[in-house]
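Why does this matter for the project? Reviewers at the last site visit asked to see concrete outputs rather than summary tables. In response, this paragraph embeds two records directly. Each consists of the residue sequence and, immediately after it, the corresponding structure tokens. Nothing has been edited or filtered.
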Amino acid sequence: MKAHVLVMLLFLVAVQLIALAITPAISATDNRVFEDPASISNPIIYVLLILIFTAILLLAIRLKGEWLVKGFIQISIAVTIFIVLAAVMPMRLALLPTVAVMLLLHYYPEWYILDVFGILVCAAISSLLGLSMTILPVVVLLVILAVYDAISVYKTRHMVSLAEGAIKMKAPLLFVVPKSKGYSFRSQDAGAIFKGDGKGKTDRGAYFLGLGDAIIPTILVISASWSFPSGGIFGLNLPTIGAMLGTYAGFLLLMTTSRDRPQAGLPFLNSGVILGFLAGCLALGVSPF
């Protein structure tokens, strides 16, 4: 297994383990994204919000309003960090590390800062969403987003444009794995990543994985963890373990595709986590829905 593949796989494992670890604390609060976790309208609302959010970002990038995009992203991230920290410490104390993280991301967005931050924020968002939806809405969401990701990367390519904008703005929306020791994300040129040299090759200084590729499948992992009785290995039920292993299998399959151009990760990751979850339900002898 190549080094960058192993590192990205470890990122996914870390996100899911941390998300599972913080879920009890978040579950003890009243913080939920949706009022009715079982409502089938939840994934529709979530996808509509993603479409609106993406449209606003792309419009702002096209109009050279990078400051607006970056500000909006940082505010959204700050709110997420604060909600999670407030679940495990007094609200006033939660403000200090939230502000510290945002200042660090703004003034020193180096790759290792973004990676550590990415693991933590992905775990937090996954836990919040996983606690806010039951299994059926989550599966519907994953299927819709897998199709959307494929269309947005291979057909309309607007997700590629969004990734270019995120790199130009040094926005914390990606995991970054350098190809060499001297690599600096702060000085990375987005054009060298996505446009190539005209001969089918790209001069990339690093490998990239969107935070959404870690968040979306982990939602099912968290939902499965509280939807079925605990047990199995380390207190995790079989559907949860199956979902985790399915995520990793889907990721490894994704890594066998061509890396000379951007790839849609969710068709692989979401298929893997759903199939792994179903296999876990079968092994446990329970109905998945």
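We now turn to the second protein, recorded in exactly the same manner.
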Amino acid sequence: MNVLKNNHGSRVALIGTGFVGSSYAFALMNQGIVNDLIMIDVNEDKAKGDVLDLNHGKGFAPNPVHISYGTYEDCHNADLVVICAGANQQPGETRLDLVEKNLKIFKSIVDQVMASGFDGIFLVATNPVDILTYATWKFSGLPKERVIGSGTILDTARFRFSLGEYFNVSPLNVHAYIIGEHGDSELPVYSSSFIGATPIQTLIERNDHFKQEDLDQIFVDVRDAAYKIIKSKGATYYGIAMGLARITKAILTNESTILTVSAYLDGEYGEDNVYIGVPVVIDRNGIREVIELDLSEDEQKLFSESANILKEILAPHFEDVNPES
């Protein structure tokens, strides 16, 4: 079933026009991804200001985009509702520290969106994204395939960029994934990492210039990148905005492309009843299928630990979540 509402266009409702939301809107306009963009924020003046500012640049965009201020009622015929609203991560604060504040905010947001008659796809960016994507699925009652979190799409992009720098190749030729929680328990999948068609482990074995300890440091830098950026300028937004735009394009153009997002697991990787970052195939109906990488024993152990951390956070809020003992 094609869940997109508009046969001749694409309509996105953006909720939250802060740093991430406004950067996402800017990316959508510059790439000509959508036909109709509705911007919604509790700060009406801020959202209206963004709409006016973006419209002034319309003449420089590749395609005409109708950008307008809206309310939750305008979500009723949206193809995609993207949630960037919520409390921001503060210096020294982990993504999981935001749970209590943002669960309350999300209950109100999702209830109002669903009351409009919305029947499309949710894309969640707010942290902790895995927790809030699960909450959006629960609050909305939509099929799991139509509730997606940004997950580890940015972590994977950071990883590929850093590996490209290290091996002196374009990130486009680096095929590697960060999976797990979008946060401190995420992990690199070196057993399925390639430069072109050559496994990274093979390159290390063949060339003394490349070392595993260098890769380990690359991962630590990737995992902790957000903390460094937040300390420097208060928030991260350009990278995740580009990632959200990439997911949006994959949905609206029915790409069937593989991206690492927060997806619901129902037995995949030996886990269930949790949203967590894994590679999936995305098309116009949302998540078509979860791609199960052939993890090493150590990687599987780390992934299971990451999933359990998320379940332990979810358990006090959702009675059907049972962390592993």
